[in-house]
Amino acid sequence: MGFYDVGYHGSEIKTPVLDRLSAAGVRLENYYVQPLCTPSRNQIMTGRYQPYCVPLEEKLLPELMLEAGYSTHMVGKWHLGMYRKQCLPTRRGFQSYFGYLTGSENYYTHERCYFIPQLNVTRCALDLRDGEETSPSYLNLYSTEIFTHRAVNIIKEHNAQKPLFLYVALQAVHAPLQVPERYTKPYSFIKNSARRHYAGMVSAMDEATLAGGSNWPLRGRKWSLWEGGVRGVGFVTGPLVEQPGTVSRELIHVSDWLPTIVGVAGGSTNGTKPLDGFNVWDTISKGEASPRQELLHNIDPLYIDDSPCPGKASGSEHELLDSLMKNSLRRNSMTGSVSVPPFNVSMHAAIRYKNWKLLTGYPGCPVWFPHPGETVDEVTDEVLPLKKLMLFDIDADPEERNEISHQHPEIVNFLLKRLDQLQKGAMPINYPPDDPRCDPQHTGAWGPWQ
Predict the structure, then answer these.
(1) Catalytic one among 79, 110, 174, 197?
(2) Which member of 16, 275, 285, 367 lies 3.0 to 4.6 Å from 47 by CB, making a disulfide possible if both were Cys?
(3) Nearest to residue 103, comparing CAs of 222, 209, 200?
(4) How close are the terminal C-alpha atoms of the chain, in Å?
(5) Where are the stretches annotated Disordered (predicted)?
(6) Residues 37, 53, 124, 149: which is the catalytic one?
(7) Higher pLDDT, 446 or 13
(8) Domains of the chain, first to last
(9) 269 close to 259: Cβ distance less than 8 angstroms
(10) Using an 8 Å Cβ cutoff, are 386 and 320 in contact?
(11) Catalytic site includes residue 79
């Protein structure tokens, strides 16, 4: 969901339920997620920066909630591993599960089509499960509606004498852009078809609680380290909030949810590996200062943005990468006598400290995408050539228009040192090849194969 795609951010998309719930709670306006959905989901479940498939030795959020005495249930998208049954949500702390295991699928047939390169074949197979069993009986039923129906039933049938932890990860508003026509009719004024369908999907999702999405006025998009790729829409509501009807601009990250939720539930994070997240409940509920001052957006030496960048910025990546290959960081490009640490500034990385944000390498498509209703051709913002490293004051410049690394060499040096320290302590990035044994030809459904 794009930063702009909620009613209380001024969007043309109507989200009355989200607007009402958030107005009665605390709106988080300095809240960050990872540039992709699975790493964000991973951090919700573990409170840690993780590889895309959660190691089995990790203790997940639902396991901690079980220990705290809660009933635990999940509805919706898992996408945190499925090659063995031990990876399934019902083996990772959830007492019940209804949803799908992979990244995206058809909203009506609940099939996922995927090209298996080792077999040189595209397989389309069912991906919908109730518990650990496939569920073929929901053909032509829209996923947002069936997931909502299941979540409501769980709440209705739950014994109120025992606390409930229900994790709902709706498929909406992930691609493909599919929605019943009744949801798009109110948006006939939106000329762009993708945006119109997306608006309908958001409305369907709103009732329940990326093509087509909008992060306006922020820079960038999903899969980038610009604010448009990492700033999320978030709020907390409920009777435990001590200062309802407020807005928090304190720094909060998706990895903070595990220690925060477990803490509010009266549970313990003992037994987990060292957490990257903080308990930010007093920040949210009482308006206190966030314990978080630093936020690592990402470090990825293998980053490739394979989606075309529109407009005049289409050559930015090639120009910058060519420059990075030909030149190392010019130490004399920064004023003062501050020495530059050995962090490789050609690497795709970004880090935030208080109001400062440093980006290195190619952050992703650098465009300020237009306000919905405009076309890319109508964008008049000239994207200046990107630098090997860039510094922004996000509090003063949330749209990342004023690059100021030359004005603050000491801040640049400090953040480069932090990136170097974090990189040295990081696990090596590993993208294993697809396992051809995942082929669902004989089972008719995606699922465990080992």
Answers:
(1) 79
(2) 275
(3) 222
(4) 34
(5) 430-450
(6) 37
(7) 446
(8) 7-291 (3.40.720.10), 303-424 (3.30.1120.10)
(9) yes
(10) yes
(11) yes
